[in-house]
Every structure is written in C-alpha cells, then in structure tokens.
Design a protein that fits this description.
Layout (H helix, E strand, L loop, with lengths): L4 E4 L4 H13 L4 E7 L6 H10 L5 E5 L1 H14 L11 H19 L4 E3 L8 H12 L4 E3 L10 H10 L15 E4 L4 E4 L29 E8 L2 E5 L2 E2 L2 H14 L4 E7 L5 E7 L1 H17 L2 H20 L5 H11 L7 E8 L2 E8 L7 H4 L6 H17 L2
Parallel strand pairs: 1-2, 1-4, 2-3, 4-5
Antiparallel strand pairs: 6-7, 7-12, 8-9, 8-13, 9-10, 11-12, 13-14
Length: about 400
C-alpha cells in the first residue's frame, strides 16, 4: 500500500472520478499534478476543483518553454513524422509530463503515481515508460485497468453519486475525446470512430475551415539558428512564443488538419483527427532551410532514420538509448542550419517561396543552365556509365 499518491490531474471528468476513486480505495493522501504545456485550460479552476475534493498538495507546473525548447524543437530538427502525416503532438508531451510528475512526487515524499489513460490507448505506455525512466522503483496505479467502471456513462453515474461536478459537454454521451497542448489538438473516439464518416466541423478548434480562410495569401519569413526558429518576420520571440505565433497564422489560413487512421503501439488501428497549425508551418520551413545548408550525405542519413525516430517517440521511448543516439545523428550538423525561409500561407497550404543562408551550399555556377560546356557533358556521360556498372 503506497504512503502517498500523485495523480496526473486535468480536472476533467476522468481524472475527477479517478481522484475520488483513489481516495476511496487507498488509505493515504492523494496529491494532484497538472502540467501546463500550452493547453487552453483554466488552471485556477483546476486548482479550485482539487481543493474542493480535499486535496492538500496541488502542483500546477508551467512547462511551456521547456516543452517547446527541449522536446518539440529537437523533434522538429529531426523532421519527425509518424506514418507519413502525424507530427506527434500528443506523443511528444507525455515524457515531459511523466518526468515532472515523478519529480513532484519525490519532492513531497510520494511513492506512487497515477494516470487516467485507458487500457486501449498509447498514452498508458508513454506515461508509464516515462515514469520508470525517471524512477524505476515508482509504484504506478492505472485505474482504468483496475476498476469496474467500463464507460463514460459509468463515470458520470459515479460522479453524480459522489457529487462531483461533471463538465456540461460530458453530460450524457460525450461526442469525442480531446487532447491539447501548444503544438496540437487531437480528437478521437465515438462519432469519429467510423473512418468513412467525415468529421463534423465542430471537431476542429485550431484551424479555420478552408471556405472561411482569407482569399488573399500571407507571406512570412522564419529565421533559423542551429536548426531552431528564432524569429518571425525579423522579430525575435521565445520558443513558446514562436509556436504560438505560428499557430495563430496557421489558424487563420486553415493549415495543419490531418485525418489519420494510425497503427497504435499496442496493435490496434485508431482514427484520429489532428490539428497542428504552427507545427505544420515549421516542419516545411525547417526542411527548406536544411535543403541549402546540409550536404547530401547528412540529408540522406537523416531521412533514413526519420521513420524509426518518429516511431520511438510515438511508442513512448523518448528517454531511451536509441532515441538519444538518433538525436546525435540529427543534431550533428544542425549548427549549419541557419538562415531565412520565405513562405506563402494560403487556403491550407504552406508554399516555400525562397530560402537563403550564410552557410548555403548551393552553388549557382554548378547548376546554372546558362553555363554548360562540353567537358561537363563528358563527365556526366562517364558518371552514368559507372553507375550502370554498379547495378549489373
């Protein structure tokens, strides 16, 4: 039996019910931990909810800058994308939250942590691997794998029994499940489970629908230093502010919607609706600046590991040795990835309009069609013949 538990707490239906369930089933204090990773939550309200439930130790942890600086940006330096389209918005937040939850547990003398992830999802894996990576001896309590509550209806009945406030949109059958941070918003479940049915427009909160976006495009310039964005239109921002600004631009132009049927780590397929407005702009801009600052070998070596790198993050292995080794490959030449990228934003599209860098490897004298000569043609013929011999 643990002597104190720290619950990852959002103040929503699930974690409010879990908090009460823990208090009823464990003869020890329960503390709450809430990570602010840029989601649109009322943290004062979350704190008041925890206090009203009898919680004495409450942590609201502002992780926004650390999240973007130390997790989002390294991932984007790798150009990581899962199964061709998913920019890993949920997956990249879980390791940081898990790590900080354990640190808070240690600070207050707790020997157990709890989370609200279900037994069918990826997040249970991500959280628990993150917990063990930070403290291999921690006790983990996963109520969805332990209790006899099987549905949202069961949770609502439990909440009503114990006079727990139920969010209005959770009364009755909830339409879908949402996760949010500064990088993205995801929605899945219920009305979204049929992959043939188009998602209703009210699912989307971070992007305008294309019909409502401006009929005039908008040009921006993103400046990079060592592979990270540092300025937008020559104005400097912090890491979090950069992503916030790009989110605002992406929202206005309907950029970053993804409808994906993905392969979960635990084996089943799942349909998710993702919005990553700022991240989508950043992804295209970073690849554009790399195109003139990284040599062929570095570029292709990076591209060859993207799928594995993304899979490791998706599966929850951010703290693993393999991910760290791949990060070294990713960052080997990022000190050369400096310069500006000019982009046009229009009707859901991110269009590269130009790129320049003091580290540019682009040599106009070698590629111009205006400076061909016979010697160049002879070298090209010899090169082609030598390549043919290699494959036969």
């Amino acid at each position: 039996m643990p002597k104190k538990i720290v619950l990852a707490y959002s103040g929503g239906l699930d974690t409010s019910v879990i908090l009460k369930w823990l208090q009823l089933n464990y003869d020890c204090p329960v503390a709450t931990y809430t990570a602010d990773v840029g989601q649109n939550d009322d943290f004062k309200e979350i704190e008041l909810k925890a206090k009203s439930a009898g919680v004495k130790e409450i942590c609201i942890d502002d992780l926004k800058e650390e999240f973007v600086n130390d997790y989002v940006f390294p991932m984007f330096r790798a150009n990581a994308v899962y199964e061709g389209v998913y920019l890993l918005g949920t997956a990249i937040a879980r390791p940081l939250i898990a790590k900080k939850q354990i640190e808070f547990a240690k600070k207050i003398g707790a020997d157990a942590v709890a989370h609200g992830s279900t037994g069918k999802g990826n997040d249970q894996v991500r959280f628990e691997i993150g917990y063990y990576a930070t403290d291999p001896n921690i006790e983990i309590i996963a109520p969805w794998r332990l209790w006899n509550l099987k549905s949202r209806e069961d949770l609502i009945e439990f909440a009503q029994k114990y006079q727990i406030t139920v969010p209005k949109d959770k009364i009755g059958e909830p339409p879908f499940s949402v996760d949010e941070n500064v990088l993205h918003t995801s929605a899945e479940g219920k009305i979204l489970e049929d992959p043939w049915e188009s998602p209703p427009e009210y699912v989307f909160s971070r992007t305008k629908k294309i019909e409502d976006t401006p009929n005039i495009s908008e040009d921006i310039i993103i400046s990079f230093q060592n592979g990270n964005p540092i300025k937008i239109n020559n104005e400097s921002f912090t890491a979090f502010e950069i992503l916030e600004k790009l989110n605002s631009l992406g929202f206005e132009h309907g950029i970053g919607r993804v409808d994906l049927v993905e392969n979960r780590f635990i084996g089943m397929k799942s349909r998710g609706i993702y919005e990553t407005p700022g991240g989508t702009i950043l992804f295209h801009a970073h690849r554009a600046i790399e195109s003139i600052t990284l040599d062929k070998q570095s570029t292709h070596e990076k591209d060859s590991i993207v799928s594995r790198y993304a899979e490791l993050i998706y599966n929850g292995f951010w703290f693993g040795k393999e991910r760290k080794e791949l990060q070294k490959i990713v960052d080997r030449n990022q000190n050369q990835v400096n310069g500006d990228v000019k982009l046009k934003l229009f009707k859901g599209n991110v269009i590269i309009m130009g790129r320049k860098s003091k580290n540019s490897l682009y040599d106009l004298s070698k590629v111009s069609f205006e400076k061909n000569n016979a010697q160049d043609q002879k070298k090209a013929s010899e090169f082609i013949k030598s390549q043919f011999l290699k494959i036969n």
